[in-house]
Automatic annotation (TrEMBL), chain A:
Family: Belongs to the monovalent cation:proton antiporter 1 (CPA1) transporter (TC 2.A.36) family.
GO molecular function list: calmodulin binding; potassium:proton antiporter activity; sodium:proton antiporter activity
Gene label: LOC107671463
Keyword hit for Lipid metabolism: no
Reaction(s) catalysed by this chain's protein: Li(+)(out) + H(+)(in) = Li(+)(in) + H(+)(out); Li(+)(in) + Na(+)(out) = Li(+)(out) + Na(+)(in); Na(+)(in) + H(+)(out) = Na(+)(out) + H(+)(in)
Lineage of the species this protein comes from: Eukaryota, Metazoa, Chordata, Craniata, Vertebrata
Record protein name field: Sodium/hydrogen exchanger
GO cellular component: basolateral plasma membrane
Record's keyword annotation contains Membrane: yes
From TrEMBL, chain B:
Cell location: Cell projection, Lamellipodium; Cell projection, Ruffle membrane; Cytoplasm; Membrane
GO cellular component, one term: nucleus
Principal subcellular localisation of the protein: other
Keywords from the named record: Calcium, Cell membrane, Cell projection, Cytoplasm, Differentiation, Lipoprotein, Membrane, Metal-binding, Myristate, Nucleus, Protein kinase inhibitor
Name this polypeptide is given: Calcineurin B homologous protein 3
Domain EF-hand: 112-147
Domain of life: Eukaryota
InterPro entries cross-referenced by the UniProt entry: CHP3 (IPR052490), EF-hand-dom_pair (IPR011992), EF_Hand_1_Ca_BS (IPR018247), EF_hand_dom (IPR002048)
Similarity field: Belongs to the calcineurin regulatory subunit family. CHP subfamily.
SUPFAM superfamilies according to UniProt: EF-hand (SSF47473)
Source organism per UniProt: Sinocyclocheilus anshuiensis
Membrane topology, record value: Lipid-anchor
GO MF, any single term: protein kinase inhibitor activity
A GO BP entry: cell differentiation
Length: 785, 220
């Protein structure tokens, strides 16, 4: 439905009603209800109707140990569900808000979601304050333990590894050096301003300023994700800014602890600085190691989950969360642990788990991160209303200006250095986007909130300043980045599907470059990447991937994945006229032939009229798969091995009809665990060669046409229905005709039934999941492409 | 065994530098490597390249080695292959792996892209008829998968056929049943690899370092 032209006002009104209802509930839930909540005998006027009990009341006679009260039929006890109830209400509010924004088309295309959510938060906070209650503040513990991990895990699990590693040097430069520069610049200059200002700010010492600088200079992944996702910028810039926001966590953690620790003492020595650097290395590498360990554990566990497919997603989530918490135990960088865990486990886990688990993981992660994201922004708004503020014009304005200036200078300076080492240089447009995309967010807020007010009397001022900066970056920069991207004509993300050709040539190029490096004698980064790949294939995959998948080369995995996608698309589109784009519908194998036909058999000639007739019948029957009839040109004909066995062809067709029926019956069993957990290939072969599936069907006039069977390997990995049948139910074996190119017999006229075969074939392949025991392809990025 | 001037001959290097675009230091480094590989002889044979240890595990090593001896990569209209090459040819082949300079015009970039893609094309088109036929493409895929264990010839056939179909449908579009798609011509090849920015991807970083010697010198 097109929301733009639809019932705009009605929907809007509906949304508003929901909004008001939820708001009312929320506000109401926060009112003190203690008095009304507990006693069970209020409102139990109906108690008497329940029976023959004496209507004894609370006011009893003296000494009676047993006082009979009327049985409470309906009582109101809010207190004991208060906490979960409120949490659920907040989540509900957040989700309804999200829903609402997308129903209002005009607003959502101008204003990024994060801004709207903050505004909602402000409103809710304002309302709560009006009622006289204390609005809940975004507690740091809740933020760091419950709201942040889903977002980071989502980002880490689906991180494009290839681009990340290609640009790792650049990202690290921005993350580490850039953040350091920002912190010291902002902190130092702010100290100068405080000193200059006079008596009001003189109590702010250098270390506190540096601490503040380090908190505020970190680019926030939540905000970056929220804004960048909507502008669809090209992958390079996206990974640069986003990677920076993730990796600067280590720097922030170290600086934060360093300054916090020593601010009470008031002095930092050289040893402390040196220890700080060591600490940084420990924090970042330690975080990564912890994450990698948990990732490998998760991958290993997933190897054995073929019997309990239902809890596979759980392993992914729990192991990742444990990685985060374990890193936090040692005050290592939890974010880096989470990213490392997700990135390490992904290729192996995805090779092991079922397709449904993969979908589950994907959707759960997206759902959680979306809800988290929404809640964070709403709470930011509420906390703004709630939090203790101390407004100081100089400080706040100075902070804002210095942040912006530092960012711009940092990016420009670093790019100048980085471009000396990059092949694809960063242009000034890129630099602008990187600088402009440095948004601050809730992490900075929570870190300030964690400060102890006794040690930091200026905490409230810091809070105010941070909130101002956050608001500025999210509102002003967030809102204007989209038109700016369009204005500057920055390259957008290319929505191209990866084709098999690209995959082949990418692999070819990788090997070629490795070979040239070897010839040069230069151990460059292709060489090491190749070595790592080989190590991965030889040892790691064997360990962590179950069964035959461990030996599957990447090209074949990609090919199967593509095939799978095509099959699913075909089924989903109902075998409709629009074929999946990867499937070239307009060219069939008959058009691509070896130059000299291998055999030159004498084939029966067709009269022109007959040819035309056949063609006409075909055309009227080819609604779906648009297969082409091979022309009866004796020069281009290739003999069909089955030319003589048309009866067999007939039977095959009938069998396939039955198979389709059986498949649709199988549909009912797809969600039930299949009793014998065979290896998937045996399961598939069983399905294909099941004699019960075949029956006879009345054959109407049909002309068998060319069945282009694009993926017809005879390997155990996938099954070719047609060739299966040709062997009359035996196991598929090697056959020289990889593509079954059949010549329609001129003698018999049969109506075309292939349109059904294709979907069946596809159906079979993608529905050949006899329950949780099946193995299937998943969408995944190759680990080391 | 006449040695190919053991002292760097400036004039020679300069002409080479102009022809291939390498800097003088890079040419000196590559010359050292050439001498190392050819055991100080003037020309390089196929066997010399085959002795490189690291190439053993590369699935397409034969094609890479062949590319060095393919006349089409030396001259505009060369045909066939040679048995031995001199330093100039070695350098010419290496020059295909240079990265584009920072400030080059669109035309130069396009030219570089075409040259690199031509190199790749020649690697696939082994019989030098100007098209990559289905057989040749199948061979490419087979070689790529050759190191990966035996997963059936049919899979490779399937992959090669699917890829070929894709090329045909992208390049030529709908084809009538009696039309015949000969093979991938160079223009089609350009088309399918249009989006891959080959000029930046197909490069060896080493060849861009003007400064230090990164070549691993083994004792000859």
């Amino acid at each position: 439905r097109d929301w733009r032209t639809g019932c705009f006002d009605e929907e809007c009104f509906g949304v508003l009603k929901m909004f008001i209802l939820v708001l009312g509930l929320l506000v109401g839930s926060l009112m003190p209800l203690g008095g009304a909540a507990s006693s069970p005998d209020t409102g139990t006027g109906h108690g008497g109707s329940h029976g023959n009990k004496d209507p004894g009341y609370a006011k009893n006679g003296n000494g009676t140990t047993y006082s009979k009260k009327p049985f409470p039929v309906l009582s109101f006890d809010y207190e004991h569900v208060r906490l979960p109830f409120e949490i659920s209400l907040w989540v509900l509010l957040a989700s309804l808000m999200k829903l609402g924004f997308h129903l209002i088309p005009r607003v959502s295309s101008i204003v990024p979601e994060s801004c709207l959510l903050i505004v909602v938060g402000l409103l809710v906070g304002g309302l709560i304050k009006l009622v006289g209650e204390d609005p809940p503040v975004l507690e740091s513990k809740i933020f760091f333990f419950y709201l942040l991990p889903p977002i980071i895990l989502d980002a880490g699990y689906f991180m494009p590894i290839r681009q990340f590693t290609e640009n790792l040097g650049t990202i690290l430069m921005f993350a580490v050096v850039g953040t350091l520069w920002n912190s010291f610049f902002v902190g130092g200059l702010l100290y100068g301003v405080c000193q200059l200002e006079g008596h009001k700010l003189a109590y702010v010492d250098l270390l506190s300023c540096l601490l503040f600088g380090s908190i505020i200079s970190a680019v926030d992944p939540v905000a970056v994700l929220a804004v960048f996702e909507e502008i669809h910028i090209n992958e390079l810039l996206h990974i640069l800014v986003f990677g920076e926001s993730l990796l600067n966590d280590a720097v922030t953690v170290v600086l934060y602890h360093l300054f916090e620790e020593y601010s009470s003492v008031g002095l930092i020595t050289v040893t402390d600085v040196f220890l700080g650097i060591v600490c940084f290395l420990v924090v970042s590498l330690g975080g990564i190691v912890v994450g990698a360990i948990y990732g490998i554990l998760a991958a290993f566990t997933s190897r054995f989950t073929s019997h309990t497919r239902v809890i596979e997603p759980l392993f992914v989530f729990v192991y990742s969360y444990m990685a985060y918490l374990s890193a936090e135990v040692f005050h290592l960088s939890g974010i880096m642990a989470l990213i490392a865990c997700g990135a390490v486990m992904r290729p192996y886990v995805e090779a092991n788990i079922s397709h449904k688990s993969h979908t589950t993981i994907k959707y759960f992660l997206k759902m959680w991160s979306s809800v988290s994201d929404t809640l964070i922004f709403i709470f930011l708004g509420v906390s703004t209303v709630a939090g203790p503020h101390q407004w100081n014009w100089t400080f706040v304005v100075a902070t804002l200006i210095f942040c912006l200036v530092a960012r711009v200078l940092g990016v420009v300076g670093l790019t100048f250095v980085i471009n000396k080492f990059r092949i694809v240089k960063l242009t000034s447009k890129d630099q602008f986007i990187i600088a402009y995309g440095g948004l601050r967010g809730a992490i900075a807020f929570s870190l300030v909130y964690l400060l102890n007010p006794e040690h930091f009397p200026m905490r409230n001022m810091f809070l105010t300043a941070i909130i101002t900066v956050i608001f500025f970056t999210v509102f002003v920069q967030g809102m204007t980045i989209r038109p700016l991207v369009d204005l500057l004509a920055v390259k957008k993300k290319q929505e191209t599907k990866r084709s098999i050709n690209e995959e082949i040539h990418t692999q070819f190029l990788d090997h070629l470059l490795t070979g040239i490096e070897d010839i040069c004698g230069h151990y460059g980064h292709h060489h090491w990447k190749d070595k790592l790949n080989r190590f991965n294939k030889k040892y790691v995959k064997k360990c962590l991937i179950a069964g035959e998948r461990s030996k599957e080369p990447q090209l074949i995995a990609f090919y199967h994945k593509m095939e799978m996608k095509q099959a699913i698309e075909l089924v989903e589109s109902g075998g409709g006229s629009k074929l999946p784009s990867a499937l070239p519908s307009t060219v069939s194998m008959q058009n691509i032939q070896p130059k000299k036909p291998s055999q030159d058999r004498a084939l029966p000639q067709l009269s022109k009229a007959r040819e035309e007739e056949i063609r006409k019948i075909l055309r009227t029957n080819l609604q779906r798969t648009r297969q082409r009839l091979r022309s009866y040109n004796r020069h281009t004909l290739i003999a069909d091995p089955y030319e003589d066995g048309w009866n067999e062809m007939l039977i095959k067709r009938k069998k396939m009809k039955e198979l389709e029926k059986k498949i649709s019956q199988m549909n009912n069993y797809l969600t039930v665990p299949a009793p014998p957990p065979d290896s998937p290939t045996i399961a598939r072969a069983r399905l294909a060669s099941d004699p019960q599936a075949w029956g006879l069907k009345s054959v109407t006039e049909s002309i068998p046409t060319i069945k282009v069977d694009l993926a017809s390997p005879q390997s155990p990995e996938s099954v070719n229905v047609v060739d299966e049948f040709s062997k009359k139910g035996s196991q598929p074996k090697e056959e020289e005709g990889g593509l079954t190119m059949k010549v329609p017999s001129p003698a018999k006229q049969r109506k075309d039934k292939t349109p059904d075969e294709e979907p069946q074939q596809r159906l079979m392949r993608c529905l050949s999941d006899p329950g949780p025991a099946a193995e299937e392809e998943d969408e995944d990025e190759p680990f080391l492409p | 065994m006449g040695s190919f001037q053991s002292l760097p001959d400036d004039h020679q290097y300069r002409t080479l530098s102009q022809k291939t675009g390498f800097s003088l230091e890079q040419i000196a480094i590559l010359h050292n490597r050439f001498k190392q590989l050819s055991q100080n002889e003037e020309t390089l044979w196929r066997d010399d390249l085959k002795t490189i240890q690291d190439l053993e595990s590369n699935p397409i090593r034969y094609q890479i080695i062949e590319a060095f001896f393919d006349r089409r990569n030396f001259q505009k209209d060369g045909v066939g292959s040679v048995e031995e090459i001199g330093f100039e040819e070695f350098l010419t082949v290496m020059s295909y792996f240079r990265a584009p300079a920072h400030r080059i015009t669109e035309e130069q970039r396009e030219e570089m892209r075409r040259a690199k893609l031509r190199f790749l094309f020649n690697m696939h088109d082994t019989d030098n008829d100007g098209t990559i036929t289905l057989e040749e493409y199948r061979h490419v895929v087979e070689e790529l998968l050759s190191r990966s264990g035996a997963l059936g010839r049919e899979t490779t056939k399937g992959i090669a056929d699917a890829a070929m179909l894709e090329v045909a449908s992208i390049s030529v579009g709908p084809m009538a049943p009696d039309e015949f798609y000969e093979g991938i011509t160079f223009e089609h090849f350009l088309k399918i690899l249009k989006g891959t920015e080959i000029e930046t991807r197909m490069h060896i970083r080493f060849l861009n370092m003007d400064t230090t010697v990164l070549c691993k010198q083994r004792c000859v």
